[in-house]
Amino acid sequence: MPDAKKHILLIGGGHAHVAVLADWIKHGLPAERATLLTPHPMLRYSGMVPGWIAGEHRADDGLVDLTALARRAGTELAFDRCCGLDLDRSTATTSSGETIQFDYASIDTGGVGRARDVVGDDPRLIDIRPIDVFVDRLASWRHTARGKAVRIAVVGGGAGGVELAFALRNTSGFDPRPDIVLATGDEGLLPGFADPVRERVLAETRDQEIRLIEGNARFEDGWLVAADRSIEPVDLVVAATGSAAPDWPGESGLACDADGFIAVDRHQRSTSHPNIFAVGDVAARQDRHIPHSGVHAVFAGPVLADNLRQVLAGKEPQRSYRRRWNNLYLLNTGNGSAIASYGPFAAQGPWVVQLKHWIDKRWIATYAELARGG
Fold first, then answer.
1. Are residues 32 and 150 in the same domain?
2. pLDDT digits (tens, 9 = 90+) for 79-95
3. Which Pfam families match (predicted)?
4. In this structure, is the dihedral angle defined by the CA atoms of residues 63, 243, 318 and 269, taken in order, positive or negative?
């Protein structure tokens, strides 16, 4: 029997769920009732944060209006955070104690920061997750530190850490520019990227006088150390150490992988509860490895929208997101240029950062037009 007279709950306002809302705006709500449960009225697009730090974007340029999208999609809003599910009763509990009943639920909350587990605790530490908290804390720190000579340590040698190191070196409004140390971790600089990309990034760090340390960074007795030596003095520590799983999915009884991420099949459907879907950093595909990266959540969004429409019509989901053989990465160097990575190929120049800005702004503009009713 068709399930069109059901209630679907979207838990989290992540990159994939904005694509679901867009689908509902364009093609109609596939259920009798829908609710978006999210703590924030806006989604901040993390790909534009380095450009904001370097003064290439305004703080609000990378925001997607979840409130307007939800209203246009005929979706109710609940501004709160999910802290647990009762899977027998099909209810979600919010941090304020409210209970929301659902027939189907889709989870796109993102992962949680793990910097304190990896690096240790210190008041100078800022985790990039969640991104909204990171932006607020960094904005506050910049206000108090502007005009001073400062030294910043970035922990994490992946694409996120590299972009943040370049952005912070070119922080808007700072004279002198911040001194930057990038502690890559034991895996080194840009693990998984091709040698030509790493060579260009390495040359750029030398040109911008960013110090590289290949080793894990950790606080010991109040000192930040890496590769068995102190890298103090440090005024700020920015951690891009990857995503951890929130506790509540596993505690609720959803099947999870060994790291606590929600186990889903090729249709993004829970392997233990067929009325639950999950996507993005909170989920782990069991049929193939999909890295936790915003680019994959963006591409998986339309697939998720189709599969939700199928199950709400009483049918089985059909589509599966398959990552491309390679994805295009555009690493902003913070100085009016960027480095492009596509498989074994690399390129660099002002045209690359212009391409990055065009792609980012086009993605934002798509949802801004939908939010306005265009």
1. no
2. 999 999 999 999 999 99
3. Pyr_redox_2
4. negative
